[in-house]
Amino acid sequence: MTTATSATADPSSTGAATSAETALTDVVPAPVEVFPDAEAEYRLTPWTPIRTEPRSAEAHKVGLLLAESLRPATGYPLPVVPARSHKPSGISLLLDNVGDTLGREGYRIEVTDDGVTIRANTAAGLFAGTQTLRQLLPPDIEANARRTTAWTVPGGTIIDHPRFAYRGAMLDIARHFHTPDEIKSYIDELARFKINHLHLHLTDDQGWRIEIESWPRLTTVGGGPGTGVDGVGAGFLTKEQYSDIVAYAADRYITVVPEIDMPGHTNSALSTYAELNCDGIAPPPRTDMAVGYSSLCIGKEITYEFVEDVIREVSELTPGPYLHIGGDEAHVTTPEDYRLFMRRVLPIVEKYGKRPFGWNEIVRAEPATATVAQYWGTSTDNAELADAVARGHRVIMSPANKTYLDMKYNPDTPLGLSWAGYIEVRDSYEWNPGDHVTGVGEDAVLGVEAPLWSETLRSSDHIEYMAFPRLAAVAELAWSPQEARDWTAFRERLGKQAPRWEERGIDFYRSPEVPWQ
Ligand code: TNX
């Protein structure tokens, strides 16, 4: 980040806890430009209004969410009212032409003694600005009951916009089901770090977690008792619950990307509906962690009726532009069958108005270039991915040895797996998505996503322990310009998130690499 003066904490500090006030530079992900003004600071009072762009229902809604997040700790009423003039008093959220560089999600914040003014081209930008503002207030702002803190915001200007359009997190609710409330808590945390896509891995060998009316046993059996790894992850989302999650996410400018994994990772469906198997015999349900043993029957017509029903119903529930059809680890599908299958199924995704996503194996089917490949490999060379990029495909970077939140931090981590190695915070931070894989340059990268597979994760505490702090690192990779990223500065800023996470009861991993406050 560009910093004009030195409101930052002493960079030579080795991490001893200090109760330094929050500085304008203490933001994760690092903003593009920060110009602290040591002379100025705004202090919230019981009379502070939140003034939003007149006649913009969306800006008003962003104001309401901001008020909701600041009321419990301050105890202030923080009324959300139309901004009658552009004079900066109180907190103002204004839609303005702030220029093409800031784009759809960029924003500008100015903090003076009189107020905080956030300006953006769209309400999405205002929302991003409000997430920055929350981090500029003292950590006590996260308390859920009233505190008598001086609610100051450091003076100066921040100008900010994202590096990548797609900034994602994936949650696997198939291996263990996670409830709507748990998913919403995760969404709350994602929004703070300006993540704008939530990929839900809805189906797998061990369970089917989204209601499909035309194939009801998928969930009544495949999401019922005994499903999930070790048979302890039962549950599924009704259509209503799924839509409610989609709406909750949308209010926080997060787009849900549903994944129906196929043709592999389908034992749950195959064991529920015998007719989907080539031999017509249902295999037993499975609750172990093996992968790569199941496949839909490529040669049967009913397979495509099933797939079309599922894609139609899920697409109807999903306002976002993407639908992920998996395609990973289809080890028992021959390459010819895989290609046949994808060449039939990808057009179905498009027929229902969605842009297909697949794990990177999908490029083997040489699909239309609109198909987005999600790279989960651990190598920095992948000729088939580079070829796909040369043909015009875009890529989501999720290298397993950098972004997989289910990998253990070290051999002592009680949860998680280690097939892609141990991933400490610094490992997850120090790489460049724009040149990580040979032949996959910045322009080919649509964004970055951190998947969280849940074979070993049952509760929100488990999710939090694996996701934090690494998710904040990946969020910074996806949002902040490469030049603004520096491990030494990042670990300091990250350390200052600790009291905020503690206040919210987030069970994060206290990595020894980070000077936690
Ligand atoms: C590989 S990554 C998988 C998942 C597992 C994960 C565990 C990918 C596309 N497939 O089925 O859950 O490893 O880390």
The CATH superfamily of the largest domain is identified as Glycosidases
What is the CATH architecture descriptor of the largest domain? Alpha-Beta Barrel
Give me the number of helical elements. Answer: 15
Question: Structural class from helices and strands?
Answer: alpha/beta
What is the total tally of β strands? 18
Largest beta sheet, briefly?
Answer: 8 strands, mixed
CATH class group of the largest domain: Alpha Beta
| CATH level-3 fold name of the largest domain | TIM Barrel
Mean pLDDT: 95
Distance between the termini: 22 Å
Organism: Saccharomonospora xinjiangensis XJ-54
Domain Beta-hexosaminidase bacterial type N-terminal: 26-161
InterPro entries: Beta_hexosaminidase_sua/sub (IPR025705), GH (IPR017853), Glyco_hydro_20_cat (IPR015883), Hex-like_dom2 (IPR029018), HEX_bac_N (IPR015882)
Keywords: Glycosidase, Hydrolase, Signal
Write the layout of secondary structure elements.
Layout: E1 2-3, E2 33-43, E3 50-52, H1 57-74, E4 80-82, E5 90-95, E6 107-111, E7 115-120, H2 123-136, E8 152-160, E9 166-172, H3 180-192, E10 197-201, E11 203-204, E12 207-208, H4 217-220, H5 239-251, E13 255-262, H6 267-272, H7 301-317, E14 322-326, H8 335-351, E15 355-359, E16 372-375, H9 383-391, E17 395-397, H10 400-403, H11 425-429, E18 445-452, H12 460-467, H13 470-479, H14 487-495, H15 498-504
Parallel strand pairs: 1-2, 3-4, 3-5, 5-7, 9-10, 9-18, 10-13, 13-14, 14-15, 15-16, 16-17, 17-18
Antiparallel strand pairs: 2-8, 6-7, 6-8, 11-12
Helix pairs in contact: 1-2, 3-5, 7-8
The structure holds ligand TNX.
